[in-house]
Design goal:
The complex is a heterodimer of chains A (103) and B (409).
Chain A lengths: L1 E5 L2 E5 L13 H10 L6 H16 L5 H5 L6 H7 L4 H8 L10
Chain B lengths: L1 E6 L3 H13 L5 E7 L3 E3 L18 E3 L8 E5 L2 E5 L4 E4 L4 E3 L2 E4 L3 E3 L16 E2 L4 H13 L3 E7 L9 H15 L6 E6 L9 H13 L2 E4 L4 E5 L4 E4 L4 E3 L2 E5 L2 E3 L1 H5 L24 E3 L12 H19 L12 E8 L2 E7 L8 E5 L3 E5 L4 H18 L19
Parallel strand pairs in B: 1-2, 1-9, 2-5, 9-20, 11-18, 12-13, 12-18, 13-14
Antiparallel strand pairs in B: 3-4, 6-7, 7-8, 10-19, 15-16, 16-17, 21-22, 23-24
Classes of the chains: A mainly alpha (103), B alpha/beta (409).
Bound molecules: flavin-adenine dinucleotide.
Chain lengths: 103, 409
């Protein structure tokens, strides 16, 4: 584990650059994480990030299908917002865990 | 007379019927179990059917062999749960009342959720091995297959037994080797996740196996549709993967009954307190096994461990006491790796699979995250344990919660 500076704050991240404490997340931190993924955040992006954070807090596993049914964007739209690995990138920018399985 | 109603007589429902009937007084408690089918399938055995290691008869027994005397068993479809009225409607219109319910209706595959999947090539070039029909049809195909591109694809997460598709490609590699045609077959493992392995220790210890066996991994492929004419799977971002044989884990969903009853999430899994195993919506409904949304594997071993916690909490609930037993998400899964070897993982909500020995520190006999012959024997004897110990609701020499003994960080 390491700390990295985002938006002037020291944030705990793991080896792959994912936040280890979702409570350290702010919109400003998200904007800088997004820059590292070469994404400029819009209101639509923030809506998706908020949805991911709320679902994760509820403990339900995230899937692209679930985001697609959220009413915020459809699946194609999600790919356009976070090109090349939508769930992996959006999770990182949302300050939550990387999608994973048991092994 | 007070009433307990068990919905679903698969792994979880059967275990609970046995546990409860041996504990609850017959003059006070009536126990009723409902399931639509009369045959019990040993689902972990489906994996071996395509390779001729098991046949259909090795994995089926009558459900009634496993229900204890003193439980009313009704074979019927369940139509609706009316939790506000403490009643359930069956397909034949009959109404059942309950004081407490255990919901164990599992998860089923939904090939029709993916356009093109269940069309011309279904059971001709495209097979699942999550149903008896799929496993048997795949066996017939593989018997005479002369080679080409084998693509193993997972359509959506979560799905039951998350290691089964990995085991499938390992066993396929070994099978085609032994048949002398491995050089004529390309095996590709296609997953929506960031990799075949996603946890650090498991990745370190086991991902070498895929390379060693020449199995290609394509991560982050999220299946949109299947093109039957061109024999390709196509993702939402336009990646295309051609196949000659597609083995698929279709989208997994909870039963439609859950949706009809307004009790599910977007995949019909039932929101459940991950520690107490009680439904988040109804105080007198507990949820066991694959039907729930608890964040651990959908696996028989989880059902077995969770059943002990559920029983404690149901008994507390009956006595009007707080629910003190807490489930930790414990799962314990064998991973067949081919050529008579296997691996084993043991983990819970908070602890990823770690290397070490199991269940005894330093002694084993099983090697966690290791690839050994002994681990394979574990999987082989699991079938016997399943029929004779697990379903009967008997205890195994391992407690419900995960133990750190024998694990190395
Ligand atoms: C290929 C494969 C390999 C596997 N390998 C392993 C393994 O190695 N180790 C392991 O631990 N687990 C393994 N599993 C997983 C394991 O089999 C399941 O997790 C377990 O059986 C789940 O039990 P359950 O009681 O939740 O559901 P099930 O056993 O599926 O039972 C659900 C029951 O509910 C009934 N039902 C549902 N809806 C209705 C309705 N509307 N009306 C009437 N009845 C209804 C069904 O008929 C069924 O009998 C594997 C599964 C598969 C498919």
């Amino acid at each position: 584990m390491a700390t990295k500076n985002y938006a002037g704050v020291a944030i705990d991240v793991n080896d792959e650059g994912y936040l280890t404490d979702p409570a350290q997340w702010t919109k400003e931190v998200a904007a800088e994480l997004a820059k590292e993924e070469e994404i400029e955040l819009t209101d639509k992006h923030y809506e998706v990030l908020q949805f991911l954070r709320e679902e994760t807090a509820k403990g339900s596993p995230l899937t692209i299908r679930k985001v697609g049914k959220s009413g915020i964007v459809d699946i194609k739209g999600l790919y356009e917002l976070f090109p090349g690995g939508p769930l992996k990138k959006s999770s990182r920018i949302a300050g939550i865990d990387k999608p994973s399985s048991c092994v | 007379m007070k009433k307990i109603l068990i919905l679903g007589g698969g792994t979880g429902g059967t275990i609970m019927a046995n546990k409860l009937r041996s504990i609850l007084d017959r003059s006070e408690w009536d126990i009723t179990l409902v399931d639509q089918y009369k045959t019990h399938y040993y689902q972990p055995g489906f994996l071996f059917i395509p390779f001729g290691i098991y046949n259909k008869n090795d994995v089926i027994k009558p459900k009634s062999d496993f229900f204890p005397p003193g439980v009313n068993v009704i074979f019927s479809e369940i139509d609706l749960i009316e939790g506000d009225k403490n009643q359930v409607k069956l397909g034949n219109g009959k109404i059942l009342n309950y004081d407490f319910m255990i919901l164990a209706t599992g998860t089923q595959t939904r090939p029709e959720e993916t356009p093109g999947l269940k069309e011309d090539l279904w059971y001709k070039r495209i097979f699942d091995f999550y149903t008896i029909e799929g496993a048997v049809a795949l066996r017939e195909f593989i018997k005479t297959w002369e080679g080409g591109r084998l693509v193993m694809n997972i359509a959506e997460i979560p799905f039951k037994c998350p290691v089964a598709p990995l085991e499938f490609v390992f066993l396929a590699d070994a099978y085609f080797h032994e048949a002398g045609i491995r050089d004529k077959i390309n095996i590709t493992y296609v997953t929506p996740l960031p990799g075949a392995f996603t946890k650090p220790h498991a990745t370190k210890m086991l991902s070498g196996l895929l390379e060693e066996k020449n199995i290609k991994v394509i991560p982050e492929f999220y299946l949109e549709r299947v093109d039957n004419k061109e024999k390709k799977i196509i993702s939402y971002d336009g990646q295309e993967i051609p196949f000659d044989l597609l083995t698929i884990v279709p989208v997994n969903m909870g039963n439609d009954l859950i949706e009809r009853s307004g009790m599910g999430d977007d995949l019909n899994f039932v929101p459940t307190d991950k520690q107490t195993l009680r439904s988040e919506k109804y105080e007198n409904i507990f949820v066991l096994g694959d039907a729930s949304n608890i964040p651990t594997s959908k696996a028989g071993s989880v059902v077995h461990f969770a059943a002990e916690v559920l029983l404690e909490n149901l008994l507390s609930s009956i006595d009007g006491k707080p629910l003190y037993a807490k489930f930790d998400g414990h799962a314990n899964c064998y991973i067949e790796t081919g050529f008579g070897k296997g691996s084993i993982i043991d983990f819970n909500y908070d602890t990823e699979p770690l290397p070490g020995t199991f269940p005894l520190p330093g002694v084993g006999p099983f090697g966690l995250l290791q690839n050994t012959k002994f681990n394979h024997y574990g999987k082989v004897i699991f079938r016997w344990i399943y029929w004779h110990i697990l379903l009967k609701g008997k205890e195994l020499p391992i407690g419900p919660n995960m133990s750190m003994a024998g694990k190395k960080l």
